[in-house]
Amino acid sequence: MPSPTAPAPPVGALLRRYEDPGDPLSCRPVTLGLLNRGYRLATTRGAYFLKHHLDGDHEAIARQHRATQRLQALGVPVAPPVVDARGGTVAVIGGRCYALHPWVDGRHRDGAHLSASQSRRLGSLLGLVHTCLEQVMDRHRTEQREDAYESADPAETFVLIDELLALARSARPRDALDALAEHRLLERRTLLELHAHRRPPPASAGGWVHGDFHPLNLLYRGAEPAAIVDWDRLGVQPRAEEAVRAAAIFFVQPAGELELAKVRAYARAYRHATGADTAELAAAVHRVWWERLNDFWILRWRYQLHDRRADPQFAAVSALAVWWTSRYEAVRDAFAT
Fold first, then answer.
1. pTM for the whole thing?
2. Is the separation of the CB atoms in 231 and 136 below 8 Å?
3. Number of separate domains in the chain
4. Are residues 320 and 222 in the same domain?
5. What is the rounded average pLDDT for all residues in the chain?
6. Which residues make beta-bridge pairs with 203?
7. For residues 279 and 247, is the Cβ–Cβ distance under 8 A?
């Protein structure tokens, strides 16, 4: 977990690597995250997004940068990094990795702010990302073993539920979220006992994906997508699962229900853009449903990492798993018909 007071980035040393970037005027934090830190850097030449990559994996960062450069050439809305005077995009200063990107003026929009036609546009956009990644990434990296994508083991989930229950019950001072956490953990244990026999088999249809496609990583300018950002989780996964996972974030309502009419429009556009068939989407729905049924990442952050930034999401996320289970066929049909 990052420190609450992050050290200021080395703006002067960074800017000296670029040809005429302007003199620095201000550098303000944008977000603090587990994967990176971001800053809005203003200079006499304009505005930039300064990204501090916390993982420090130079090779992986450079691969992400090359991918966005190639995707931009194919018409995907992205914001590739600024190339420095030596032709590089990753600056290692004091043992830390930084990158400079053009600042993109835009806003985030979730499914509540998208019309049916914009939902179709979103599905087409993710389909474009997947088909273009297939063109620009090394094909040999997509070769995966048949058992590469195992689904969650309910036996392990039951152990985790017991651990989280103990932590929720012992929390002091106890608040409303602790009570809701206890209720949802007990409820989820019952659901898993009823549906443990539905654990999906390993998935094998892997392809390159963004890895974290959700409203906070997509900027709109007006009604049109302006840039897909934060490619830190670029990797090989079952592509249709990213489509389902993204829809479950974009189109979830505060009460934990999905806007299935918009999901249907989105999914049809995605299938048309990628050529994915209904069977692939139906299998992806089943695997993501199972993933949600076994996943407690927000409570793990709260109780094990003592990080409460995701707490506001818990009510809707935890309700979705229950609602999805009760409306399983309707959700599957929205994605696959």
1. 0.93
2. no
3. 2
4. yes
5. 93
6. 149
7. no
